Amino acid sequence: MYLVAIAWIYVAVMMAAAEATSSQGTVLGAIVTFVLYGVLPVSILVYIMGSGRRRQARRRAEAASAQADGGNHAATQGHAPVGKEP
């Protein structure tokens, strides 16, 4: 997964360099090209592809929390509702 992301960032850098060095291009155009064609799509791709890993980490943390406190009651003591006395 990361190999594809690195390769796409490389392509976006080359596109931005071509935009910056073109006779009709600008540095601002190169920055916009890099952000819109490089950073934004790669960040979305990495976020989507990492969702399974985040889900597994959350499940492991929940299991560890339940195991640490005995698993038969809430991990923290309850608080009184707002406006109510305990």
Report what the structure shows.
The chain is built from three helices and no strands. The chain starts with a helix and ends in an 18-residue tail after the last helix. The chain has one domain (2-62). By secondary structure, the protein is an all-alpha fold. The chain is elongated and about 75 Å long. Helices cover 71% and strands 0% of the residues.
Which percent band covers the strand fraction?
A: under 5%
- Uncertain regions: pLDDT < 50 for 5+ in a row? none
Distance separating the two termini: 52 Å
The tally of domains stands at: 1
Descriptive terms for the model:
86 residues; mainly alpha; 3 helices; 0% strand; membrane
Quick summary:
With 86 residues, the protein is mainly α. It is built from three helices and no strands.
Helix and strand topology:
Layout: H1 2-21, H2 27-49, H3 51-68
Helix pairs in contact: 1-2
